[in-house]
Every structure is written in C-alpha cells, then in structure tokens.
Specification:
The protein has 3 helices and 16 strands. It is mainly beta.
C-alpha cells in the first residue's frame, strides 16, 4: 500500500514523461505547476495578477515591474510519501528577479517483471529542477507592467536526464491609478525547446495563466485565476486574504488542479518589521497533507 501511495504522489505532483518504454504524447516537467511559496499555495495558486514580489518568476514575470522593495523568500516543504521541495527566490526593486526550485521524490524501489518486489535490486531517485532569471518594468506610472524570464529545466530519473530551456512572458494591468482597486494578469509560461527522454523528444508543458485581483476594505484581497495548459483541461484557482492590523494575514483558497483532495487550501502569515513567516495547509486526500512554511525578508 505504501509503495502504491508513493507512485500516486509522483503522478499527481509531477508525473514524469520518462516512465515506461513509450513516452509519445506525454508531457514532462509537470512539477512546474506546483505552487512554490506558502502564500500563493494558501491562496489556491491564484496569483497571476498580484505577483509583485519574489514569487513573480513562478507565476507572472511582469510582477517584477511592480516590486516596491527588495524581497527574498525561502521554503522547505515535506509534502508526503517522501516527496520534498526546496525553493528560493529574489526580487529587486530595479526589476530583476532570480528563482530556484527543486522537487525530490525520495528513494524508489527498483523492480522487474520477474522480481516485482525488487529484492536486492536497490533504489533509484527522481529529481526535478528549475532555475530562472527575469526582468520586469512598469509603464505609465504603474498602470502596465511587462516581464520576461529565461528558465533552465531538468528532470533526472535514475541515470537518465532530460534538459530544456524555456521563456516566460507576462503582463499586469493595475487599475489602481484609475480609481479601481483591481489588477488583471496574463502570463504565457514554458515556451521553449523540446526535452529529450532517451530516444524521444517531448513538448514542454506550455501554459497560459490569466488572473484578476480585487482589493476591498483596504486589507482584503480576492483573486481568481485560470490555467490553460497545452495538455489537459483548464483549471480554476480562487484565493482570499485578509490582513489584520497590518501584521496577521488569514488566507483560504481553492486549487482546481488538486485531483487527490477537495482542492480547498488554508493558511496565514505573520509580519514583523521586515521579516515575515507564511504557512499553508494543502490536503491531498488519502495521500496525506502538505505543510508549507516560508520565510521572507524585505529591505
């Protein structure tokens, strides 16, 4: 049962295209759809219109054009079934950003047709990695922000590795200067080279992300996102946040990509001076729960 749950975790979080003998039609690097920071994770992954911080390169590079102060964030996540994630990102108020994200699926027992238990065959690992650098700039007193990012992606399964390069493009229209507490976001992600898995070449998981964010009561935020990937159906993401006394944030969301659980997410954050800590709870049904804790600093 434990082995079955481990394989389900791999397929749900980031199903690799290199499994099996034939990979035609599969899409590699699905780990790129995983939320990478506790705040957007608690908001159900709805972030395309409000990504004006260090998480911009994960959701919308145009957010780098709206960064008002330098921001760095770190996260270590123990998902479940031995799956872990490391994430670090930096955004500078000059418009530059950097991001590193890696997911490890732990040790998996080798098996063969003649030995399905894998006795004495040892284990192997699966690791996905993405590193990105980008730039964003705002125009017309912050009304429009545009951004672009270059991305290196790799997926390693046992002794096999696939690598690819990709570009993300984004735009954010912030209507605050026009008297509307609303922002619209659009990003096109993972446009790049094919990934080579052994003898086959596979397309990257190109995704179109759209979003709308609406601020209310000065401290409230509602966000709606839609992800439209090249492969598979579109998913809806909804998030809500309320910040009390400019210090304590409460968050709830819905992630339409979470097929293992209800999709409902929860979390919160605490800010003190330049430091902040954010937490997200994401249930995955029978697979278990994902607890995310992020630490950030602004200057």
């Amino acid at each position: 049962m434990k082995k079955t749950l481990a394989f389900l975790a791999i397929w749900i979080l980031a199903p690799p295209a290199a499994w099996g003998g034939g990979t035609e039609g599969a899409t590699p690097f699905n780990f790129l759809f995983l939320d990478a920071n506790a705040r957007p994770a608690a908001l159900g992954g709805a972030y395309a219109a409000v990504a004006t911080d260090a998480n911009a390169l994960q959701y919308n590079p145009a957010g780098l054009g709206g960064v008002s102060s330098n921001h760095v964030t770190f996260q270590h996540t123990e998902h479940f079934q031995g799956v872990s994630q490391e994430y670090a990102a930096l955004a500078l108020k000059q418009g530059f950003g950097f991001m590193f994200n890696t997911v490890s699926f732990g040790k998996i027992q080798r098996t063969t047709v003649s030995d399905p238990r894998g006795t004495g065959l040892g284990t192997f690992g699966i690791r996905d990695l993405a590193a990105s650098v980008g730039y964003g700039r705002s125009y017309k007193d912050g009304l429009l922000s545009l951004g672009v990012a270059g991305k290196y992606i790799s997926e390693e399964i046992d002794n096999f590795r696939a690598q690819a390069g990709a570009v993300d493009l984004g735009a954010i229209l912030d209507l605050k200067s026009h008297g509307l507490p609303m922002a619209l976001g659009l990003a096109v992600q993972n446009v790049g080279t094919k990934a080579k898995f052994q003898s086959s070449r596979e397309d990257l998981p190109v995704n179109v992300k759209t979003g709308i964010g609406w601020r209310f009561l000065e401290s409230g935020l509602l966000i709606f996102d839609a992800n439209i990937p090249r492969e598979g159906g579109a998913t809806m993401h909804i998030g809500g946040e309320y910040v009390a006394l400019k210090t304590l944030a409460l968050r709830v969301g819905y992630n339409g990509r979470n097929d293992a659980g209800s999709g409902v997410t929860f979390g919160g954050g605490l800010q003190h001076n330049r430091f902040s800590v954010d937490y997200a709870f994401v249930p995955f049904g029978d697979l278990g729960n994902s607890h995310r804790l992020s630490h950030s600093y602004r200057w």
